[in-house]
Fold this protein.
Amino acid sequence: MPRRRDLADQQRRLSAATWSVLAERGLPGLTLRAVAERAGCTTGMVLHTFADKQALLVHARELLHRRTGQRADAAQADADSPRAALRAVLWQAASPTEEKREEARVWVGFLAAALADPVLADLHRAYNRRFLDRIGGLVAEVRPDWPPAAHADTAISLVAVVEGLNALAAVDPQTYSEESQRVAIDAALTRLSRGSDGQS
Amino acid sequence: MPRRRDLADQQRRLSAATWSVLAERGLPGLTLRAVAERAGCTTGMVLHTFADKQALLVHARELLHRRTGQRADAAQADADSPRAALRAVLWQAASPTEEKREEARVWVGFLAAALADPVLADLHRAYNRRFLDRIGGLVAEVRPDWPPAAHADTAISLVAVVEGLNALAAVDPQTYSEESQRVAIDAALTRLSRGSDGQS
DNA sequence: GCGTTACCGTAACGTACGCTACGGTATGGG
DNA sequence: CCCATACCGTAGCGTACGTTACGGTAACGC
């Protein structure tokens, strides 16, 4: 048996390359040739690792989700109160640093791709709903006195703020600066601090 | 002098076609051939009306801004109080109906295109900052007691919520339903109702 | 060390893109 | 009524895409 390869490692390398190209050249610049060049191999190897371009995209999308999910797990675990956990998870999901802004550009790219690709759209919905559930669960921990519907509504508000900041900061990091994002997230969280019933 | 044409009308038609294709097939499906087919003409006519594809995109982008701007003007004018005006402007900028959701898909498409095209990026920033200024001005009318920095910060929060809802509803209109968007926007506005100093 | 075989680089295929050049066509002025 | 000309449809250019087929190559069992 000759020449065995580490398939998982190749997939990881190529996903990283996909990511890098997507962040740098945008969706139209994401070609198999560009990915191969970035990964230091040829298109032949790319298509021996993934069946076609869509499979590569799907894998890269999953990688993005895993990465943000793990960061969220870590932020959540490090916090010493539900309120701090919620704040930390939202904060790490926003895009203050350049690295996160790159992730935000990739996210926007996949969002746009999902508009025309049913498979990517399904993935996006699934991952985003999981994020919603995570936030909703944390809201429930912070305000167990609220009804479940209020938890869900608040989660939607918070996720909308965070993803809105991400999308806007991806194109205009100057206006949507780190400080602005912090203020916006904190403002969205103040609603949880008061004696509200969570319904408006 | 033979055969005069209505240039402005052609530009309008082609921008509408661009828009329609972008909403339906996404950014990768936006080709000159597709636009020409949708407009009922040929690529020759398209490139006699616009110098190149980018000029077409820029015109379509301007159209999107004008359209949303006019709707915002109307919403603002119809309201009988600053608070109602702010609410109406935010609400019309969100995407509850199918027509608005199409606009949201187009907006996401242009956002993604802006990531790779400096000209479209400049347009996006300019238009978004104008929207920010509009919202900031309305916030100032609602809470003249707040410092200007609080007006700007609040505007960023509100715009982030609205555009976040737009982006998310473009792919998952079921989760980010009309009702959910209404609740989220109202929740973001409650901050303006209380005796806050606007700083957190 | 050698044959076998999985692996992947090379090259090219077909397609579709943005764009251009040219010739037919319709329409205004005389 | 007809000529002149602005207009635009047709056809095709060059390029780059995704994908494929094949042959060379390197590594493991024996």
